[in-house]
Amino acid sequence: MGTLENSSKLYIPYGCQTIGEDDIAGVVDCLRSPNLTQGERVPQFEKALSEYVHASYCVAFNSATSALHAACWALGVGAGDSVWTSANSFVASANCVRYLGGDVDFCDIDLKSGNICVDLLAAKLLEARVGGKLPKVIIVVHFAGFSAQMDRIHELKQEYGFKIIEDASHALGGSFASKPIGSNNYSEAVVFSFHPVKPITTGEGGCVTTNCSDMAAKLGRFRSHGIVRDYETGRSSPTEEIWNYAQVDLGFNYRMNDISASLGLTQLRKIESFIKRRTQIQAVYREELSSLPIEFFDNEKNSAHHLFCIRTNNRNNLYKYLKGQGLGVNIHYIPIYRHPYYKSLGFVKGYCTNSEIHFNKTVSLPIFPSLSDLHLEYSIDQIKSFFK
To answer: Cα–chain-centroid distance for residue 388?
Structure first.
């Protein structure tokens, strides 16, 4: 990945992992250990994560997509069940429902935050109740690392009886109402991602936090073929057979390996410094770009600052210009229902008005802990140059 220092051609990505010598040493130590998978490091990582977010349980997976799939399965999502999620997210937030045969619908967003608009959600729920089509689960996405209005969504949960999965793939290190995102104060499950561009990385990986022991047990089975080690066979008399494991559910091989967990452990120890640097970067962007014809999101407080997005009426030209100057800016997101697969299910362009506006006007700028001041200054200069 090219940078100003190590490449003749400038390239600054919108997001990038920050790896130190301690991370490398932790991985090497694992490589020299007896177990590269199903060893002690995954449980250690799970324990550290659950303590960090103040959750009772944490179950690690090989990706956040696997974690979302498992969370939906553990909540009983199946054929004919309706699950709603934000139109403004990566496709995994909806795909996890389709894997189980469920029906997906999409909620529109609040343009100020990029998260589900609670007022529009309330109206959609009221209409669904009249039509007898209430959702079984709502997957609430914390866009860019900033929490949705979980207290208000929880009030709707109590009124309408749905369950909540928080897709917090962007949001490890963020908080809501003075509680860490992941503490499950409003939901049955919270999913985090450890993809390289996320707040911390395990290479690839994800997890589910929950405060429910039964759900944690289900998640543990689902990620490992549906197998348990202490299964009671129910045989009435002893036999010569030896059973040291038994499959009780149809699960998947979604386990995180110990190499990944080793990286996660050292990364998690640095998350506060990572969030501090991301917070500094977004503050510089806000100050330096405030005079330009752009809009900022109302997500400055208590955010993990996974993304820094700006909105402008001249987005397409800005995107092309910055790409040409070596900035790996990105679009977050194409509304999920606009993708060909979901169009084939009957969704059409314009289904969620605010999500369409967001898609057409928003661009994500470089933000990650190892972004140097020189890179940040260059990024800002190029944005200013475009608007001149």
So the answer is: 36
